[in-house]
Amino acid sequence: MTSSEASVCVIIAAKNAADTISRAISSALRERQTAEVIVVDDGSSDRTAETSIAADDGTGRLKVLRLDTNKGPAFARNHAIANSTAPLIAILDADDFFLKGRFDRLLDNDDWDFVADNIVFIDARGDIAEPDVPYFAAEPRFLDLGGFIEGNISRRGKARGEIGFLKPVMRRNFLNAHGIRYKEELRLGEDYDLYARALVKGARYKILHGCGYGAVVRPDSLSGRHRTLDLKRLYEADRAILASPDLPREAKGWLRLHERHIRGRYELRNFLDLKAKAGLARAGLTALTNPASLPSIVGGVAADKLEARKSRHRPASDKPMPPRYLLPARVI
């Protein structure tokens, strides 16, 4: 499918996004390949739905769906998929926007089931206008399960830049053929889980290094406030994939690596929760009943203390960070 023939459904799950939703919708509607934009107001208490409707450009491509209660982004996206028909599906967060001409560059060939491009991260404390992005060499490559999971292992002391943040365009036919939808119990890592399951099923996941997606980074983002339960559900999602019959040995190895990583984060957070609720002695005794959790707890506590010590010696600054890119890219 070439860019001139592509039909894209842009899905925006939004909760209390009245301040940002207009730009997100407008950036999607200005793309000539956009066939429909489905906004799901996920139980907002502000004027997200009304603001979305006001952003309509009169072409009949915008549909706004309302949920009475908050169901989470996975449910909202599945609801949008069920109420759309375009053969390609693109996810856009309500805080974010597409750079002009994104789909022209992204949809130029048909050798993929998922195709993603680079992301520019913009600090919300500064100018969040659409940046003047350099022209990067596309340097197309295909992502396998190992590279995907390795790119989703976060590391302390480094800026977040996991490959799981990529926002690929997905072929509806592939999702339907393999019965793949977002797991609605997940409120953390729902994108990771869907992409991992797709790669296990043989999805051709293509990456281009040109930049077409703008993500606004806010210190109070939902992704930074996940619950302990969310971590538990995420490593359980890995276990569910691991339980799949006929899973290749190499895939099992990569999935176990991610499961251990997330489970370690859960064990540390669970320990800290219990410490805050019942005290250090109770938390320590509980941890001793599960010796396998001790390396994650001890290592995590030590790393937290070291980071806190470094932070005390780091000069405070409200100066916004300059734009940065998820993928290293070569300017041409």
TrEMBL record:
Superkingdom of the source species: Bacteria
Alphabetized Pfam families for the sequence: Glycos_transf_2
Domain Glycosyltransferase 2-like positions: 9-165
Cross-referenced InterPro entries: Glyco_trans_2-like, Glycosyltransf_2, Nucleotide-diphossugar_trans
Keyword Glycosyltransferase: yes
GO function term, MF aspect, one: glycosyltransferase activity
Glycosyltransferase recorded as keyword: yes
Transmembrane segments: none
Annotated keywords: Glycosyltransferase, Transferase
Family: Belongs to the glycosyltransferase 2 family.
Family matches, as PANTHER family: GLYCOSYLTRANSFERASE, GLYCOSYLTRANSFERASE EPSE-RELATED
Name listed for the protein in its UniProt record: Glycosyltransferase family 2 protein
